[in-house]
Structure formats: structure tokens, C-alpha cells
Amino acid sequence: MVLRWHGHSCFSLECDGKTLLIDPFDEGVGYELPEVKPDIILESHQHHDHNAHNRFESGYILVNQPVSEKVHGFIIKGHPTFHDDVEGKKRGKNIIFEVTTPDGFRVVHCGDLGHRLGPDLTETLKSPDILLVPVGGVYTIDAGLARELTRDLAPSYVVPMHFKTKDLTFQLAGVEDFLAGEPFEQCEKLELKEKANVGTRVVVLKYR
């Protein structure tokens, strides 16, 4: 399984010749269109920086509801959450997607999560291989809550997303507060061939 970051909250998972794309953005966000041909597109919620599936050629399967299904060998489970800390009254609903790849790696993408998780969902999502977590605050949880969530879920790898870069056109906090002096790796992609059992490793991906 290969994970790539395309900017903001957009990632692709590649496995067994299939590509699953999560949270594609529109032209106004500032990043270039991902150079992928997705077989599956997941959307955590219907805001312009997460739901631009219409930028891609037809032929993909779109999942934008909190369903549980198997598509092209990917097991997809959507968990309903909120985009804010007042049960969606400010920004609506959000879906955390839990994806198990055909080769058995479990990836949790938090979308625009805006609140602490309850104990039941925390237990359900615990110990993923990869956690993709927003850290930029303003519209989502901030760096402090992202670090708390990382501690509670105890992933093998945590990858920050949804933070300010030179290309993003709107204001968020940067990734620095989330990293906060902790050791981290930076790489072009995250490729997993076997399970890791060495605690949580922080990986900052370069977008492409």
C-alpha cells in the first residue's frame, strides 16, 4: 500500500492496481489537481475544499455517506461525526472514514473533525496503521486536540493534514504546533509492506 498527500486533506491510497482518493479540492484551494485516475473517491463532507469529485473523469465509485461496504477490495467504513464542537450547528456533519486496504492496512482519515471523540468511537478506531488528522484549527480540531487524539488512538503512523502552507489560499495554523519539537520524518510517500510495532511515528508528507 502506498499513501500520497496531494495537499490540504486530499490523499490517495494505491493498492493492487487500484487508487482510492479522499477529499479532493476545487480550484480555489490553491493546490494543483492530483495527477491520479481514481477508482474510488471518498468525501468526508460537502464543502468545496473536500468534495470536488467532478474534477475527475467518470468511472470512479463515489462514497460520501457514512456507509459500510467493500469496493475494489477496499473495506470502507464511514463514522458520522461533526465539523464543529456544537453537534454540527456551525458547520454541519463530517465523516471519519476507516479504510482497510486489500493488503490489510487500516487507515483512518478524520476529515474536518471539529470535536473530541466519545469513548465508543475512540475504541472502535483505536490502533490504526495510519491516522490522517487535521491540525490547523480554525475549522477543525487544533494541534493540541490532534495530539490528544493521536495519543488516544495510538496509530503506528500519524500524518498531519489541513494546515497552512505557502500554496493554501485561506488561513489556518501551520503544522509546527503539532510537531512541537517531537521527532518526525518527511518523505514523498508512505509505503507499507508489513505491520509496524514501534509506537507512533510522525510523518510529514510532501504534497504532489
How would you describe this structure to a colleague?
The chain is mainly beta. The protein has one domain (2-205): 4-Layer Sandwich (Metallo-beta-lactamase, Chain A), CATH 3.60.15. Helices cover 11% and strands 31% of the residues. It has three helices and 14 strands. It has an eight-stranded mixed β-sheet with strand order 6-7-8-9-10-11-14-12, with helices on one face. The protein has a six-stranded mixed β-sheet with strand order 5-4-3-2-1-13, with no helix packed on it. A hairpin with a 5-residue loop joins strand 8 (93-100) and strand 9 (106-109). The longest helix has 11 residues, at 143-153. The chain is globular and about 40 Å long. The two termini are 17 Å apart. The mean pLDDT is 95.
**Helical region count?**
3
- Report on the biggest sheet: 8 strands, mixed
Proportion in helices = 10-25%
Named at the architecture level, the CATH assignment is: 4-Layer Sandwich
In percent, how much strand structure appears in the residues? 25-35%
Count the beta strands.
Answer: 14
The SSE order reads EEEEEEEEEHEHEHEEE
pLDDT averaged residue by residue: 95
Helix/strand-derived class? mainly beta
How many whole angstroms does the radius of gyration measure?
Answer: 15 Å
- The CATH homologous superfamily is termed Ribonuclease Z/Hydroxyacylglutathione hydrolase-like
Assembly state of the chains shown: single chain
CATH fold naming: Metallo-beta-lactamase, Chain A
